[in-house]
From TrEMBL:
Pfam families: PnbB. The lineage of its organism: Bacteria, Pseudomonadati, Pseudomonadota, Alphaproteobacteria, Hyphomicrobiales. This is DUF4863 family protein. It comes from Bradyrhizobium barranii. InterPro entries: PnbB.
Length: 179
């Protein structure tokens, strides 16, 4: 079995467990307590998605240059309880970065919405790298944006891979960004 198939197979028991939960702050806390950085699931998924980026089957399509890439790993299927699996690579050392309120270099991605929410595994590649979730900055662990939420993905402190699961594969880039 290749590492892509291994990642999918590793995801299925997790998706079976969370398929009837609603993304949001409460679920995010539960994910970080139950499947945080020290858990076997986190370790396995992080190892496999890093391998996917290295092997070129994950986060291999440039969105806006080599420091902002993504790819759909699997479309929603009955096997994945109608979740899609996607990976994003973002690196805040990109020349298009900006300084945040704490003087960190931040790379901002495409504004988008989550009609049904999102479960997002955050895998820093650089020590101290973080992804901004709706509850604040997240290093190794999870974010779980609410259904109907909209945001810019933002990374600071270096490179991060985000492995995310979308209920029904739904994500929308059809919203106007706030001015």
């Amino acid at each position: 079995m290749g590492s892509r198939d291994e990642l999918i197979q590793c995801s299925i028991p997790f998706l079976r467990e969370v398929k009837d939960m609603t993304p949001g702050a409460e679920m995010e806390r539960w994910l970080n307590q139950t499947y945080g950085e020290g858990s076997q699931l986190y370790q396995d998924l992080a190892r496999l998605i890093k391998r996917g980026v290295e092997e070129g089957w994950a986060a291999n399509q440039e969105v806006d240059g080599p420091n902002y890439r993504r790819s759909r790993i699997m479309d929603p299927t009955p096997e994945t309880f109608q979740f899609s699996i996607t990976a994003v690579y973002m690196n805040s050392t990109d020349p298009r970065r900006f300084k945040d309120e704490d003087d960190h270099d931040v790379l901002r991605g495409q504004y988008h919405g989550h009609p049904y929410g999102e479960l997002n595994l955050v895998v820093p590649l650089d020590k101290g790298a973080e992804l901004k979730g709706l509850q604040g900055w997240q290093g190794p662990g999870w974010t779980a944006p609410d259904p109907g939420s909209r945001h810019y993905p933002e990374v600071r402190g270096g490179a991060v891979i985000a492995l995310f699961y979308l209920p029904a594969g739904r994500i929308s880039y059809d919203f106007a960004a706030p001015s």
